[in-house]
Design goal:
The structure holds two protein chains of two kinds. Chain A is an alpha+beta fold. Chain A has two domains: about 55 residues, 2-Layer Sandwich (Uridine Diphospho-n-acetylenolpyruvylglucosamine Reductase, domain 2); about 220 residues, Enolase-like, domain 1. In chain A, the strands form three sheets. In chain A, strands 4-5-8-6-7 form a five-stranded antiparallel β-sheet. Chain A has a four-stranded antiparallel β-sheet with strand order 9-10-11-12, sandwiched between helices. In chain A, strand 4 and strand 5 form a beta hairpin. Chain B has three domains: about 180 residues, 2-Layer Sandwich (Aldehyde Oxidoreductase, domain 4), CATH 3.30.365; about 325 residues, Aldehyde Oxidoreductase, domain 4 (2-Layer Sandwich), CATH 3.30.365; about 140 residues, Aldehyde Oxidoreductase, domain 4, CATH 3.30.365. Chain B starts with 18 loop residues before the first helix and ends with a helix. Classes of the chains: A alpha+beta, B alpha+beta. At the A-B interface, helix 8 and helix 11 of A face helix 3, strand 29 and helix 19 of B.
């Protein structure tokens, strides 16, 4: 309950106005649900003079679908996404990820765009001003040392959004609006492996939608947390697995919570044409263990997050591989 | 959540008398009080773990327009603390700071923004001293004492020895020793700390409204620290959103706010942030336990040797009581022929620990019940059989001279064993699923009060006036546990009148009689008895009046909503008529009831022997069913069966709620709650990082109420709010062992700890295979 800093609130009616407002006020920030930003403001991490409230922009609030796939507006609430029939029918991982985010109150307020652009998190960063000052600040904000890896040159704060891996596994693109108009790019290109600046958006740009390609393979999402609600993922995994006559046609695995960005696991192409058997599952576990880079940014150990991410990847792949849902009884345990 | 909410007690319960106000949002908590005209208080806290104060300059802060008052350690030279023998803390640091977050100065200003601006301008320098964050560091040779009079950073050592321990171990068929540790936890009550202090410079009076569970102690401490006469102070407790021990000692922010109100000659509202709540702390300490038990082949315990080290934080608080409880309450649950206890309460540069639900008993009980299970396994005995081999027979006195007057543990065991279908299911569950059980107990009020005044342990006044309304006045703090409802029921049942006729006024020092407060589960037992005593006195007056009106002998009169002679309906008068008669000549009636624990209930003569003493112990047994995910380490609690012997359920509905709450809080400690610090800074100081279970983790809890009819309890009642907590963590750890064959020695049992334990087991198995192959 630290004091909320004073700010002006702008409420643009369309994306153009929003971009213009952002351009006009150098110290401004976009705000949608505010579930991430308002906590930061109360922690004194940011002091924007102007908040640009995106909630009145109609375009951002819609999910549309057709033969070309689905378009999810960045202003769609997490709760609405979790309820959406298209997601439930075709993009299961997205629905599951949305359902698992935080708690009902957060899902009602939080948005797709907010979750995709969620700030990276670290136990040395998500603290009050008093706390961070007493600790000499950190590389991510106002300081010059990363307390997680004091010898290193970069910030290791971890990305912990749930939607990004689900969308990545399904091959999503993001639509971005800026002063020069709109552009589309693969969602993976939105992120870089740097906890201090993990988004590639330029200063005045805004994510306006995510696009999902048509005819997706079956997919699933799961994460590990200490509690069944509220917590950010210690590790989260989305798997999209297409099978053809008992062998893998396509396999995409994406992760969150373990690195400064969500990312698609590389090396799964090698599974194409093979069955999902014990050897394949072990190979997947090895790939995950090798590629995730959890650091001591959470209260749970990095070692645990590495093992849990691998275990989840195995479990989801196994479940999709035998054509049942992940909650069905499968031999997911070694 | 049980099928029959009043199972065991065949009476309907009464919804809490303040329940409607709470669920409709009408209830006003401290932060809801009218404070439009109040200044805003803020505290400047030490960013250092340990240091001598070199400079504290508040002049720039004082110069800020809108600042009405600033106080520092120089404004209060009086130490404070809940135990008269250990008042080693100042409301605002003097000379030294001993933990990060310790209050150093405070500001009252016209608004929050101004107050925060002023805090920014406070200049504070210390000469840093070495800081210690673990018991080992603090006890290491050469460590600088946090308090000059406490060498070795030991606040208190306890060495108790009852019976012949060496003979006991010699007679045992099995001796096993374990080291078990429990993380520090916090109450995490939902309502953050707040208080409103109003000082009137004209009259020199102070009114303090606070979240306190102990208004009387607050009253005394305010008088001491502000050098005020107690008669000029009024302490009021508004609605409270949870206590659990967080507020059973006077807290620094309460005194600080009063100091600010006087400095500013006005009214100051202080509302702490969640982070500040965690810094204020006063909860269950990180504890290391070494426990050795001797057992005969039939499960009979022959000896117990227990060493407990508690990391108590920077100041004394309740620490001496906590380390004494940890040893004393090894007894009173089972019949143990010999016990050796060594307790060490250690100072460290962290927020001070204090009392928390199940005070002192929970962590040692956890170790004890885990070890009992492991020894049962070694001997091929059923966990229930081991407990049954060691039951007490009431009435009796324990080795350390605690009274056991009623004992429903045997029935608790039977109830949960049968409800959980234990015998049919244990050992037959699929891999990953497990059952575990454990027992626990707790005191119904400390028989020896902290402040010895010679007064009764509790007093209740009951008023009756022309309107026929009966008003019970009690100083007891209802903190959500339902104590005001209990008083209403006690008065109504004693008089035989409808509960709607009874009103309760609680916890306002101007009108209610002094009460020691809501701690050690004392209220039902002590205040309940005092309420019955007062109601009986009123009843005698009313019966006398009825006898006059009905022209009958007093012993033939039946008291109630109507007064009758004998059982006949022929001569009957309504309550209102009898009130009129009773008020003739004497006017409005006020009677006082009291309750006192006799000296023989106040514990043994050995040093510290008073701690643990009580007129009645509650007893509990529970069975926990878990599902362990070996891939992710997540433990899910599928179901809990809990039985509690509360003597007599005065309000079965409230008892059921308290048992569920105890189980649930024990679940938090068992599964997910823990504090963590980095160089004395809390990594857990939010409800995101301090992981209280959510509704998603809440299992079905089947509650069984057992009634052993205590000879001294009010209507036979004992405590019902704490006893069922301590059994949960060991029952869960025992269930995990049953599910995956791993004994977890550390609380909480978080997913990472489970996975690390599984990895370790696989590593050892590989090693063993390799060794076999090599040989």
């Amino acid at each position: 309950m630290t004091l909320m800093p004073e700010f002006e609130l702008a409420r643009p009616r369309d994306v153009g106005e929003a971009i213009a407002a952002r351009h006009e006020h150098a110290g401004s920030r976009f705000i949608a649900g505010g579930t991430d930003l308002l906590v930061q403001l109360r922690h004194g991490i940011d002091r924007p003079d102007v908040l640009i409230d995106l909630s009145a922009i109609e375009e951002l609030g819609k999910i549309t679908s057709g033969p070309g796939g689905a378009r999810i507006g960045a202003g769609v609430s997490i709760a609405a996404l979790a309820r959406d029939a298209t997601m439930a029918a075709n993009y299961r991982a997205v629905k599951e990820a949305a359902e698992m985010i935080a708690a009902p109150g957060h899902r009602a307020m939080g948005t797709v765009g907010g979750n995709l652009c969620l700030d990276t998190r670290c136990i040395f960063y998500n603290q009050s001003e008093w706390w961070r000052r007493a600790n000499g600040y950190c590389l991510k904000h106002r300081g010059d040392v990363c307390h997680v890896a004091p010898q290193g040159q970069r910030c290791h704060a971890a990305f912990a959004g749930d939607l990004a891996p689900a969308l990545l596994a399904l091959g999503a693109e993001v639509e971005i609006a800026g002063t020069k108009g709109r552009r589309r790019m693969p969602l993976g290109d939105l992120y870089v492996e740097d906890g201090r600046a993990h988004l590639t958006l330029s200063e005045h740009e805004l994510v306006v939608a995510a696009h999902l390609p048509p005819d997706p393979p079956p997919s699933a999402y799961s994460k590990v947390c200490v509690r069944g609600a509220i917590d950010y993922p210690l590790a989260g995994v989305a798997v999209a697995l297409g099978m053809n006559e008992g062998v893998v046609k396509s396999l995409q695995i994406a992760l969150t919570g373990t690195n400064s960005r969500p990312f698609v696991l590389s090396g799964t192409d090698a599974m194409v044409g093979r069955p999902i058997d014990e050897a394949a599952l072990q190979a997947i576990e090895r790939l995950v263990q090798k590629q995730v880079q959890p650091m001591r940014t959470t209260n749970a150990s990095a070692h645990y997050r590495r093992l849990a991410a691998a275990a989840l990847a195995r479990r989801l792949t196994a479940a999709l591989g035998i054509g049942s849902r992940p909650d069905a009884a499968v031999s997911a345990v070694r | 959540m049980s099928a029959d909410p009043t199972a065991g007690a065949k009476r309907p319960g009464v919804p809490l008398i303040d329940g409607i106000e709470k669920v409709t949002g009408r209830a006003r908590y401290t932060a809801d009080l009218m404070h439009a005209d109040a200044l805003v208080g803020r505290i400047f806290r030490s960013p250092f773990s340990h240091g001598e104060i070199v400079r504290l300059d508040v002049s720039k802060a004082r110069a800020v327009e809108g600042v009405a008052g600033i106080v520092t350690g120089t404004d209060c030279p009086h130490g404070y603390g809940v135990l008269p023998v250990a008042m080693n803390e100042y409301p605002l640091a003097r000379g030294r700071v001993r933990y990060r977050g310790e209050p150093v100065a405070a500001v009252a200003a016209i608004d929050a923004k101004t107050a925060e601006q002023a805090l920014e301008l406070i200049e504070f320098e210390v000469r840093e001293l070495p800081a210690y964050y673990t018991s080992e560091e603090a006890r290491a040779p050469g460590a600088i004492p946090l308090h000059d009079d406490k060498p070795g950073n030991l606040e208190r050592e306890v060495h108790h020895h009852f019976g012949d321990v060496s003979r006991g171990f010699a007679e045992a068929d099995l001796v096993r020793e374990e080291r078990i540790s429990c993380a520090e936890i916090n109450h995490a009550q939902i309502e953050p700390h707040a208080c409103l202090a109003d000082y009137d410079p004209m009259s020199g009076r102070l009114t303090m409204q606070s979240v306190s569970q102990v208004g009387y102690y607050l009253h005394l401490m305010l008088a001491r620290c502000l050098e005020m006469d107690t008669s000029r102070i009024r302490v009021v407790k508004p609605f409270i959103g949870g206590g659990f021990g967080a507020r059973v000692e006077v807290l620094n922010f309460e005194i600080v706010t009063a100091l600010l109100a006087r400095a500013a000659s006005g009214k100051v509202m202080m509302q702490l942030t969640r982070e500040e709540n965690f810094l204020t702390h006063r909860a269950r300490p990180q504890t290391d336990i070494r426990l050795k038990l001797g057992m005969r082949r039939d499960g009979r315990i022959t000896a117990c040797d227990c060493e407990v080290v508690q990391r108590g934080g920077a100041y004394a608080g309740y620490g001496i009581v906590t380390i004494l409880y940890a040893g004393a309450l090894l007894q009173g649950l089972y019949d143990i022929p010999s016990i050796k206890y060594d307790g060490y309460r250690v100072y460290a540069n962290l927020p001070p620990c204090g009392a928390m639900r199940g005070h002192g008993s929970v962590n040692t009980r956890h170790a004890f019940e885990c070890l009992l299970d492991r020894m049962a396994r070694d001997l091929g005995l059923d966990p229930f059989a081991v407990r049954r081999a060691n039951l007490l027979r009431a009435p009796t006195r324990t080795l350390n001279d605690l009274m056991v007057n009623s004992y429903g543990l045997e029935e608790c065991l039977e109830r949960v064993e049968s409800a959980s279908k234990w015998r049919a299911r244990i050992g037959k569950l699929p891999r990953g699923k497990g059952l575990g059980m454990a027992c626990s107990h707790y005191v119904s009020g400390a028989a020896k009060p902290i402040h010895w005044t010679g007064e009764p342990h509790a007093a209740v006044n009951v008023r009756l006036d022309f309107d026929g309304g009966i008003t019970a006045l009690t100083g007891a703090a209802d903190i959500g546990q339902g104590s005001s409802t209990m008083v209403a029921i006690a008065v109504a049942e004693t008089l035989g009148v409808s509960i709607e006729r009874v009103r309760v006024v609680a916890a306002d020092s101007m009108v209610t009689p002094k009460d020691n407060g809501a701690y050690s589960s004392r209220i039902t037992f002590m205040v309940g008895n005092a309420a019955i005593d007062a109601a009986r006195k009123l009843k005698a007056i009313l019966i006398e009046a009825a006898a006059r009106k009905l022209e009958a002998r007093p012993e033939d009169i039946e008291c109630g909503e109507a007064f009758r002679v004998g059982h006949g309906a022929q001569s009957s008068l309504p309550f209102a008529e009898i009130v009129k008669e009773a008020l003739v000549d004497r006017g409005p009636i006020t009677v006082s009831g009291a309750f006192t624990c006799p000296p023989e209930a106040q514990g043994g003569k050995h040093r510290g022997g008073a701690v643990g003493s009580t007129m009645g112990f509650s007893y509990a047994a529970q069975v926990v069913e878990v599902d362990v995910d070996e891939a992710t380490g997540v433990v899910r609690v599928d179901k809990v069966w809990a039985a509690l012997d509360c003597g007599h359920a005065i309000n079965p509905l409230a008892v059921e709620g308290q048992i569920e709450g105890s189980v649930w809080m024990g679940m938090g400690q068992a599964l997910s709650e823990e504090t963590r610090y980095v160089e004395g800074l809390p990594l857990h100081a939010s409800l995101l990082e301090y992981r209280v279970p959510t509704s998603a983790e809440s299992p079905a809890i089947e509650v069984q109420i057992v009634e052993s009819h205590d000879p001294y309890g009010p209507f036979g009642a004992k405590e019902a709010s704490e006893g069922a907590l301590a059994g949960f963590p060991p029952a869960l750890v025992n269930a995990v062992a049953n599910a995956i064959g791993i004994d977890m020695d550390e609380l909480p049992v978080t997913p990472d700890r489970i996975v690390e334990a599984l990895v370790e087991r696989r590593r050892r198995a590989r090693l063993a295979t390799a060794q076999r192959a090599a040989s």
